[in-house]
Amino acid sequence: MRLWSVHPKYFDRQALTACWREGLLAQAVISEPGRGYSRHPQLQRFQETDDPRAAIGDYLSAIVEEADARGYRFDRNKIRAIGFGRTLPLNDGQLAYEWAHLLAKLERRSPSLWEQWREVSIPDPHPLFTVVGGPIAEWEKVVTLDLRRSSAGQKEAGT
After folding, report:
1. How far apart are CA 11 and CA 72, in angstroms?
2. Is the CB of residue 6 less than 8 Å from the CB of residue 99?
3. What mean pLDDT comes out for the span 9-26?
4. pLDDT at residue 98 tops 60
5. Phi-psi region for residue 140, left (φ > 0), alpha (ψ -120 to 50) or beta?
6. Sequence-ordered list of residues with C-beta below 8 angstroms from that of 31, at least 6 positions apart, any chain
7. I want to staple 124 with a disulfide (CB 3.0 to 4.6 A). Which of 1, 7, 41, 90 is the partner?
8. In a domain, 23, yes or no
9. What angle do CA 95, 88, 83 make, to 5 degrees?
10. Using CA atoms, how far apart are residues 127 and 82, in angstroms rounded to an integer?
11. 3-state secondary structure of 145
């Protein structure tokens, strides 16, 4: 499960639809504690709020808005609650980690989007988040990005 902190405008079709699907799963888990994935680390920041259902609903609302802007038909009626009405803090280290992760995916799956976004050093966050200083989140399962496959790695290797 990946609930991106990066603004959905940067997503390719696969990331947008996966984020919608995984966000709906997260909403179900938050709404019905005890279901599978209830201890998934990606849910922690929503579960720690005073209104987790509205927080995940506001998160999903931004995904639907991006889908609408692209002409996709995501069913807004699947969002169970909205109105959290404030933002959650997002460490700049977390945003940078996710951005590198997304760019690596875009380079492989959607090269034209990768070309469009690769020069962006600091992306906009998802509208639910406000960027603050700090490291990668404790709940993140950090994986080492394989630069050997990316053009950045090829440049470093001299190929």
Report:
1. 13
2. yes
3. 97
4. yes
5. beta
6. 53, 80
7. 7
8. yes
9. 130
10. 14
11. coil
| Range(s) of the domain holding residue 152 | 8-157
**Collapsed DSSP state (helix, strand, coil) of residue 77:** helix
Note whether residue 2 is domain-resident.
no
- Let me know if residue 1 belongs to a domain: no
Token digits of residue 152: 């950045």
Domain count, the chain: 1
Q: Residue 89: beta bridge partners?
A: 130
Q: Name residue, tokens 């405008």.
A: 9
Tell me the per-residue pLDDT of 118-143, one tens digit each, with 9 for 90 and over.
999 999 999 999 999 999 999 998 98
CA distance 152 to 145: 11
Nearest CA-CA partner of 148 in 158, 140, 136:
158
- The SS3 call for residue 2 is coil
Task: Quote the pLDDT of residue 145.
Answer: 63
